[in-house]
Amino acid sequence: MAGLLERIHRARRTALHHLPPEAARRAYEAAAEILEPPRATLARVEDLAVPVAPGVTLPARLYAPSAASLPVLLYLHGGGFVIGGLETHDSLCRQLARRSGAAVLSLAYRLAPEHRFPTAVEDSFAALRWLAAEGTAQLGLDATRLAVGGDSAGGTLAAVCALMARDAQVPLALQLLITPGTTAHADTASHRLFANGFLLDADAIAWFFDHYIDRHHRHDWRFAPLNAPDVDGVAPACVLLAECDPLVDEGLAYADRLRAAGVPVTLELYRGLTHDFIKMGRALKEASHAQDVAAAALRAAWALEDLSA
Known about the structure:
With about 300 residues, this protein is α/β, with parallel strands linked by helices. The protein has nine helices and eight strands. An eight-stranded mixed β-sheet has the order 1-2-4-3-5-6-7-8, with helices on both faces. The protein starts with a helix and ends in a 7-residue tail after the last helix.
């Protein structure tokens, strides 16, 4: 990991938080899969549109290893609510579908600053409800077996969607939380310890937050799920964290809170790795391991056969 960080530093690319959002999106998309393996071939990859509000549909991409009626994971990409999309997380979603034997629906929720909080939350939960209601009839999936997941900001959205699904009585088998943010003000010890030089810098986090949400809204649990009034009865969780990540403390705190409420939690803490490591499979063997852990949690939640045997 240290060698990889040194190579990234030597490349001297302009930091994303020094760019306007549109330029940052282009730069992130150009670099997002450089450290990932080639995109896996799947039996079914389809672009489609998901309705999230009257007159509003959003791009989405469906990945499935077969044409069968499969369980489905709604995947919410990372990128600080400002950057990222279907292309930046295509390889990861293909791997999750291939390794789990289930379908993955990746959503391009609307981004800030054009669409500030809580638009991303509303888009994500609307897509989850649509998938639960229409996934079987319109996509040929088994929408009675549903999960939600995401990385980084997408992990935050997935945790929030799991809470909203509980309240709306939308059954979920699992919430997959990969290096999620869960607190309001980036003020834990790990934010100080890993503030600079560990891929996700403090200045970048501030840039993302400022574009996405006003400071006086940041205690809202839909932004900081650790502030939720309670987490009782939410879906079981698989939480994947990196030791050298500013977000690691809040990820651990959220996993602890879920466990204290009696929610089953699978937790993996990857020592010596940074934020976004799960998208570095070409360089880090731990990325493949983390994808296997996520896939195994999905299979267990849906009682699917292990296809890797």
